[in-house]
Design brief:
Number of strands: 2
InterPro entries: Acyl_CoA_acyltransferase, Diverse_Substrate_AcTransf
GO molecular function: N-acetyltransferase activity
Largest sheet: 2 strands, antiparallel
Protein name: Spermidine/spermine N1-acetyltransferase family member 2b
Number of helices: 6
Radius of gyration: 18 Å
Distance between the termini: 51 Å
Strand content: 5-15%
Keywords: Acyltransferase, Transferase
Organism: Esox lucius
Helix content: 25-40%
Length: 133
C-alpha cells in the first residue's frame, strides 16, 4: 500500500484551507467558513498550537469508488484507534446511507447526543461571564 500519514506542516495550510472551503461548498455552507490560511498557520503552528492536523498522502490508485483510501482505516485500527466519530448533515442522505451500510451508528437517534456550538455574540457573552482565575 502506497500512502503515508504525517503531521501537517505550516506549508500545508493553503491546501487545508482549500479543503475546508471545498467541504463547506459541498455542505452548502461556504459563508460559514471564517478561518483563513493565516489563521491556520497562526493557530496550528505556534509554540502552543490550538489544534493538530494529520495529512494522509494517498495516490489516486489507492482510492476506492467511494473516495475513501483503501487500507487507511485498517491502519488506524491497528494503531489502536477505537472509534471514528464525525458529523454528517441531515440533508446529505447519500453519505448517511453509505455510512449506515458500513455499520455507522447515528448517536443522535441512539443515545440522544446533540452537537452544540457557541459563536459570535453568544461566544463573546459566554467569555465575559466566565470567572477570572
Amino acid at each position: 500500500m502506497n500512502f503515508k500519514i504525517r503531521a501537517a506542516r505550516k506549508e500545508d495550510c493553503k491546501d487545508i484551507s482549500r479543503m475546508i472551503m471545498e467541504l463547506a461548498v459541498y455542505e452548502k455552507m461556504p459563508e460559514q467558513v471564517k478561518i483563513s490560511n493565516e489563521d491556520l498557520e497562526r493557530d496550528g503552528f505556534s509554540p502552543n498550537p490550538f489544534f493538530e492536523c494529520l495529512i494522509a498522502e494517498v495516490s489516486d490508485e489507492y482510492m476506492n469508488k467511494d473516495g475513501l483510501p483503501r487500507g487507511l482505516l485498517p491502519v488506524a485500527v491497528a494503531k489502536r484507534c477505537v472509534r471514528l466519530q464525525f458529523s454528517v448533515l441531515e440533508w446529505n442522505k447519500p453519505s448517511l446511507d453509505f455510512y449506515f451500510t458500513k455499520g455507522a451508528e447515528d448517536l443522535t437517534a441512539k443515545e440522544g447526543w446533540h452537537f452544540l456550538r457557541f459563536h459570535g455574540q453568544a461566544l463573546d457573552q459566554l467569555a465575559r461571564e466566565a470567572p477570572n482565575n
